Structure formats: C-alpha cells, structure tokens
C-alpha cells in the first residue's frame, strides 16, 4: 500500500488515497480440535477471530481496546461467530473459543449473500459512529432553532464541519446523515413528522 501511495502522489500530488479497510472480503480457514471450517467475511470479523487464535479467552472490553472499537459494537460482531458455533459468551462479557463444537453449532461456509450483508452492516455502523461526533451539536441545534428538514441540518453541518479532505468530513454523505438521524428516531432521541426532525421531549 505504501508503494502504491507513493506512485499515486507522483501523478496526483495534491490528492491523497484513503484506504477503506472496512470494505472487502476475507476468506479464512479455522482449524479447531474437532473440525476445520471455512468462512468468507468482512475484515472486522476476521480481525476478531484472529485474536482468538492468540488466546482462547477474551474479556469484551480488553478485546475492544485491542481492536479500537466500542465494546457495544464489538459485542454485536461477536454474535456473528457465536451464531456459527465458533465463539461463546461463557459469563458476562467473557468470551471463549469453542475448540469442540456444541450440538447446536451452525458450522460451514458463509455464502456470498451473507458476507455482503455483513460488509454493508459493518460499513453502516462505521458511518453511524462517525456521525456520533456531531450528535451533541445536532441536538443543541434542534433544541435552540427548532425542528428542521434533513437538507437544512445537512447544510448547517457542512458549513461547520471540517474540510472535505478530512476523513471525518460529512461532504457527500446526505444519505448517511439520514440513516443516522433515523437511528436517533428509533432510539427515541428524535422524532420525525412531516419531513421535520425534532428533539423528542420525554414526558
């Protein structure tokens, strides 16, 4: 990647490549005590299981610190491996590698459709995490200025956000902002009526 970046800079000196490591697919083969299984997954899932090759038991918070993601997001990813009989939550936030399959284990190769869904879900969650840095600003803006349309919120955020060269820029992310605001609606932090987003006032 470093050499490719250097070559790109020769032809496009004013531009910079941004590698999207959350995208793509990884085909892995796991050799366990009683079985060998293959999976085709998004990189985040491969990263998680790689750590369980180093040690067969992890505390959720410790592993989240290693991977550098929020524990709540990591737990949702761990359930992917739990559903397939590879990992198990032995106690509260303690996860172990199942070297020997349990009776209800769902083993086997993950289809391309499943893998694509995992990649899309992973990217959507990543985008949601990026927008959380703007949440306090959005909330205060709607409290002080009243309800707004998606387009108006987006326009104001673009005027105060970092330049488009920043990895945290929201430029060209109107749909991502919409997904984030709708997530806030689902979490009862906002309400949406007649095309207007408002801060939800709890009784």
UniProtKB/TrEMBL annotation:
Pfam families (UniProt xref): ANAPC2, Cullin_AB
Entry-linked SUPFAM superfamilies: Cullin homology domain, Winged helix' DNA-binding domain
GO biological process: metaphase/anaphase transition of mitotic cell cycle; protein K11-linked ubiquitination
Cellular component per GO, a single term: anaphase-promoting complex
Keywords: Cell cycle, Cell division, Mitosis
Every Cullin family profile domain range: 1-82
SMART domains: APC2
PROSITE patterns, A to Z: CULLIN_2
Family: Belongs to the cullin family.
Name of the molecule in the record: Anaphase-promoting complex subunit 2
Native organism: Funneliformis geosporum
């Amino acid at each position: 990647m470093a050499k490719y970046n250097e070559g790109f800079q020769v032809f496009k000196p004013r531009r910079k490549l941004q590698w999207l490591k959350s995208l793509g697919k990884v085909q892995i083969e796991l050799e366990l005590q009683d079985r060998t299984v293959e999976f085709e997954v998004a990189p985040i899932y491969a990263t998680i299981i790689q750590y369980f090759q180093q040690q067969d038991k992890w505390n959720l918070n410790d592993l989240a610190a290693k991977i550098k993601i929020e524990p709540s997001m990591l737990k949702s990813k761990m359930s992917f491996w739990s559903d397939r009989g590879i990992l198990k939550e032995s106690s509260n936030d303690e996860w172990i590698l199942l070297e020997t399959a349990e009776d209800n284990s769902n083993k086997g190769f993950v289809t391309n459709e499943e893998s694509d869904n995992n990649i899309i879900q992973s990217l959507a969650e990543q985008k949601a995490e990026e927008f959380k840095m703007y949440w306090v600003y959005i909330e205060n803006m709607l409290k002080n200025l009243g309800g707004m349309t998606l387009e108006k919120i987006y326009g104001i955020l673009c005027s105060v956000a970092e330049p488009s060269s920043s990895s945290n820029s929201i430029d060209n992310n109107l749909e991502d902002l919409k997904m984030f605001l709708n997530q806030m609606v689902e979490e009862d932090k906002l309400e949406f009526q007649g095309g207007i987003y408002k801060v939800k006032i709890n009784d």
